[in-house]
Amino acid sequence: MALPTQAADFPGWYQEVVKQAGLAEPSLARGTMVIKPYGFAIWERIQGAFDDRIKATGHENLYFPLLIPSKLLDREAEHVEGFAPEVAVVTHAGGEQLEEPLIIRPTSETIVWATYAKWVQSYRDLPLLYNQWCNVVRWEKRPRLFLRTTEFLWQEGHTAHETADEAIAEARRILLEVYRDAAESVLAMPVRVGRKSESQRFPGAIDTYAMEALMRDRKALQAGTSHYLGQNFSKAYGVKFLGRDGVEAFAEATSWGVSTRLVGGVIMTHGDDRGLRLPPLLAPIQVVIVPIYKSDHERTMVLDATTRIVGSLGRVRVKVDDREGFRPGYKYNEWELKGVPIRLELGPKDLAAGQVTVARRDNGDKAPVAEAGVAARVTELLDEIQRSLHEQAAAFRDAHTFTPKDYEEFTAVLKDPGGFAETGWCGDRACEDRVKADTKATIRYLPLDPAPPGGECLVCGKPAAETAAWAVAY
């Protein structure tokens, strides 16, 4: 079935790409999804990119339980209030009503910090640098595959530190050295990084740092967050230590996470009207070879040559599509839909000429390459395509980042064409609320290092305290 065009029906395009490319499908419980093998393979590559960087910064993986005693949430009022509408509760098990309800984790700060209280007695026990890969449940009102689902997969880091400076440095390092680097280097997803306004912070956080990407429909996607939690959780759960000066103190905390919504982000950052366009470093299949033949004799010759080429490609992730009963054109369309970066076509005419036809998914270019030079050309093209996809996405974002001169222009560009609008902001919640009511846009990020920009708040005319980037977001 043909895909809707992005221009005519972006939500419909997205849903059909997820479905037709075999990434995921809705499951039986409301808001849940089955991640199919190809979609999960993309997630595994995302997971690997982030996990490698998390471990390289000195963190270790562990695992905390899915079920959390409800009394733990009662200790941290702001955190509970923020998550209350999304929490799922287990009240019955084993055929009986539970004496104490159990919360299915929406995030793990409560169980983590209740546990850390047993692990920390002295400054010598710090820092604790831990991360877990797991599932969480948040009762979404408007689920959408990968972007917002009732259950999703993610990583959540939880660290404890001696000082506020160490914790703040940790939260920022995760954002910049782990999250931004993985997003831009592997996912080819250009991101802007910054702080969240108070209204957009994680419940219980003193500061939330985020990376924001711009999708092809000119809406922003919060692609990852890192939080400085201060002593809110350590005080709530009694995580105290004897300091170097002999004085007892509460630990300073961070938490941070990225999730399967990044799969949706990759689709919407790079996809076109023919389907996915996967960055080569992320693609489960980097090269697909489509052998073309009519007779058994041609089949033998072409498959022998295909075997030679596969061998020459070394560690490149290759798929040979030698399925019977499917025409080459059908296979081309399928692999274009799935976003495989390079397609090699090989038939009797190619063999006779000593060449292979090489097609790029990112721009559709197609050219013959001598068989002896295929491996070198594929390596070059994979690097080119990775770079090109990032450059295209960055150029798109930059072309849709505006600095409007007044409120009328501000509201107009947010509605059409959409994108980021950077303005002075006084810091007042009332101005945030007005913009959201008028345009549905919110502040996506403030500068990592606050500095008064001069000028006026574009909303109310008072002196500006911050430069804010606004956008309509997922």
Molecular structure report:
This protein is α+β, with helices and mostly antiparallel strands and 474 residues long. The protein folds into three domains: 10-270, 2-Layer Sandwich (BirA Bifunctional Protein, domain 2), CATH 3.30.930.10; 287-381, 3-Layer(aba) Sandwich (Rossmann fold), CATH 3.40.50; 401-471, C-terminal domain of ProRS (Translation Initiation Factor IF3), CATH 3.30.110.30. 36% of the residues lie in helices and 27% in strands. The protein is built from 14 helices and 23 strands. It has helices spanning 10-20, 37-56, 70-74, 77-83, 109-119, 164-185, 232-237, 261-270, 296-312, 328-337, 348-353, 374-399, 407-415, 429-439; strands at residues 24-26, 33-35, 60-61, 67-69, 88-93, 96-104, 128-137, 151-161, 192-195, 207-214, 220-230, 240-242, 248-250, 252-259, 287-291, 318-320, 342-346, 355-360, 366-370, 401-402, 420-425, 442-445, 466-471. It has a seven-stranded mixed β-sheet, with helices on both faces. A five-stranded mixed β-sheet has the order 16-15-17-18-19, sandwiched between helices. Strands 20-21-23-22 form a four-stranded mixed β-sheet. Helix 2 crosses helix 6. The chain is globular.
Assigned CATH architecture of the largest domain: 2-Layer Sandwich
Strand order of the largest sheet: 3-7-8-14-11-10-9
Identify the CATH homologous superfamily of the largest domain. Answer: Bira Bifunctional Protein, Domain 2
* Helical proportion, percent range: 25-40%
Structural class per helix/strand content?
A: alpha+beta
- The percent range for strand residues is 25-35%
What overall form do the CA principal axes indicate? globular
